[in-house]
Amino acid sequence: MKHNTYSTGLFFYKTISLGKSTLILFLILSCMLTLASCNGGFLHDALYTKKLTINISGKNGTLFWIDDRGNIHRQKCAQSLQTETTTSPAIDEPLTISIAVSKEFVTPVLFLCEKEEHPKGFIYPLSTEFTDTGGFTAYILYRLIKDTDDTSSDKNEVRHFSNHFNWKKFQELIEQAAEKEKNPWEYDQTRILESIADSSFTANMLR
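Below the sequence we write its predicted structure tokens.
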């Protein structure tokens, strides 16, 4: 009987010890999950986003871009004027803005000046310089993402798909068209978007 009691007591003791270890492990995991939840934004930003500093000069307007989560951002931009002197006129100082862009996906960045019909722009990381032709290319990518069904899975699918489209070649075609005095904004955007989406786009559509 003593042997059986000892065995039972030993088993009970091990169970208590295992229970304490399990409890400690559970508490540690809970703390880690809590910290991960609190700092989720920080960890996500560190892994998937990049701080992009851009200079905007010229006129007041609105900056548009899409972040790594597919969210559309709009920011009003107002140029500050240097103090006028008797020897020199007021000069527009470039406005420096930092935005968060995706490290993983191509990102359209657009700037629409007040009283202008079409935006200037670029696609990051292919460029960081605002141009007229870059504005059309960036706007096509912008619409491709923006016009997608408003669900995270659909937007992610489009973002991944967009990475495989040759935006550099598309931009070159737009620049060639502009050199021939063709206005890219007169192209059928719906046709272009649909052809990109179903992988049937060809250079002949821009000639």
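DSSP finds six helices and six strands in the chain.
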